[in-house]
Design brief:
Helices cover 19% and strands 18% of the residues. The protein has 443 residues and is of the alpha/beta class. It is built from eight helices and 18 strands. A hairpin with a 2-residue loop joins strand 16 and strand 17. The strands form five sheets. A six-stranded mixed β-sheet has the order 7-18-8-9-10-11, with helices on one face. A six-stranded mixed β-sheet has the order 12-13-14-15-17-16. Strands 1-4 form a two-stranded parallel sheet.
Length: 443
């Protein structure tokens, strides 16, 4: 095989060679442009669609020991694998002249598949010829050929032709979280709405039976209507007071006990709202003790106002009922005004063989009641917690949050109250008016 194919213009394509024994490489024939420098390397890469040849970058240096200086290098330096066992030597060749008639093949081309229109995509490379024993080298760079249509833009890490997926909507997790949040908000609004409705419609009646050891048989079934924490004010006004009065009267009690926190405001502002209390009816009358909110609203004026409305205020005082003693003490908040609770004054000289029922606004007063031999204390103040986190606070500050409890020989009943303080809403602690039915163990 000849070292180089014949050019279209009659010239021959040179091949670079170097001697391993000290010779200096020479070109076999001058180029078509008159220069004597041959391209360093060419690699046949198959015919182009238009008849040209695509070449890849390589080194076209062939070493032939024993040849003289300037001798043309054969296309193949050793025998092919025909049984001789000798491996083939590097060979370079140009398959055909270029389509432009120049006859000078590019130094390096790499076939990358056909371009649109029949062209072939190439990437630039460098061709180098070196003399192994002289240490000199020559490099010919092929002009850069632009990237194909599928090439990735510069600086992009995505491979050419890679598709980018964009989300078409919220993810499943986001959707679920929004649904849960919406459901929680709806539940909260519904709960608060129902709790507000429960307050505004008025308290329901709750009935509790309390046995007393000292109560005579004649008093068995005696009914005391207990109402606390009405909290008359700008929201819960006269209409609400009328509902409370009507509910109490419907139970036909023997006695009515109003155990504090009746109002949240002065007599001047809330006197008309409290006016329906004059309609309370019970066989043995209605009684009142102060709560902490009365001392925020003018306790002395309210004591006089409830008296005017026909309710008997028990200010550290006692009344002897037909079958038991009824006593009442001021709220502990009155201590700052010198009007605090006085158990000795209310209970000191009584007949201890008789059963005693004590009205005291706050459950914490139970310990003094135990010391004075009280059989039953009726209280309010806690609202039963009213709503979270009030239930946690009230539970930590009071010995009993709501309902009936026992401390030694003394029983304590705590009402959840008829109204509400702050927001007119109750959650998990519905308002009530409790009818305590006394039971005699002798019956």
């Amino acid at each position: 095989m000849p070292a180089a194919g014949t050019r279209a213009g009659g010239g021959a394509a040179p091949a670079a060679a170097s001697r391993r024994d000290g010779g200096v490489g020479a070109t076999a024939a001058p180029q078509a442009d008159g220069s004597g420098a041959a391209p360093a390397a060419e690699t046949a890469a198959g015919p182009r669609p238009g008849g040209g040849t695509a070449h890849a970058a390589a080194s076209a240096a062939a070493s032939h020991p024993g040849r003289g200086v300037g001798a043309p290098a054969p296309a193949t330096a050793a025998r092919q694998a025909d049984g001789s066992g000798a491996p083939p030597a590097p060979e370079t060749a140009t398959a055909a002249p270029q389509a432009d008639g120049s006859g000078a093949p590019p130094a390096s081309e790499t076939a990358a598949g056909p371009r649109p229109g029949g062209a072939t995509a190439h990437t630039p490379a460098s061709a180098a010829a070196s003399q192994s024993d002289r240490g000199t080298s020559a490099t010919v760079l092929h002009p850069a050929i632009g990237p194909g249509p599928d090439a990735a833009p510069e600086g992009s890490r995505e491979p050419a032709g890679a598709a980018t997926l964009t989300p078409t909507g919220p993810s499943r997790r986001l959707f679920v979280s929004r649904v849960v949040a919406g459901a929680a908000a709806a539940a909260a609004v519904g709960t608060v709405g129902y709790g507000t409705y429960g307050v505004l419609r008025g308290p329901k009646v709750k009935r509790v039976t309390v046995p007393l050891t000292k109560l005579p048989r004649a008093a068995h079934g005696y009914r005391i209507a207990v109402v606390s924490d009405v909290h008359l004010g700008p929201v819960l006004g006269r209409g609400f007071a009328q509902k409370v009065v009507d509910t109490i009267n419907s139970t036909q009690p023997d006695l009515i006990a109003v155990v504090g926190d009746l109002v949240d405001g002065s007599v001047k502002d809330l006197g008309p709202a409290a006016a329906p209390l004059a309609q309370l009816r019970a066989r043995h009358g209605s009684y009142f003790v102060t709560g902490n909110h009365e001392y925020f609203s003018g306790a002395e004026q309210w004591v006089e106002e409830v008296r005017r409305l026909g309710i008997d205020p028990l200010e550290n005082a006692r009344r002897e009922m037909p079958h038991f003693d009824l006593a009442g003490v001021n709220d502990v908040a009155g201590e700052e005004e010198g009007q605090g609770p006085d158990f000795a004054k209310a209970l000191g000289d009584r007949d201890t063989s008789r059963a005693c029922v004590l009205l005291a606004h706050q459950p914490v007063q139970i310990h003094d009641a135990v010391e004075h031999g009280v059989d039953l204390q009726l209280s309010g103040h806690t609202h039963g917690g009213q709503l979270w986190p009030g239930n946690l606070i009230a539970s930590g500050a009071n010995p009993t949050l709501a309902g009936l409890d026992r401390y030694g020989d003394t029983q304590l009943y705590v009402s959840r109250g008829a109204g509400a303080w702050g927001p007119p809403t109750r959650v998990g602690a519905p308002s009530d008016i409790t009818v305590i039915e006394l039971a005699s163990k002798q019956a």
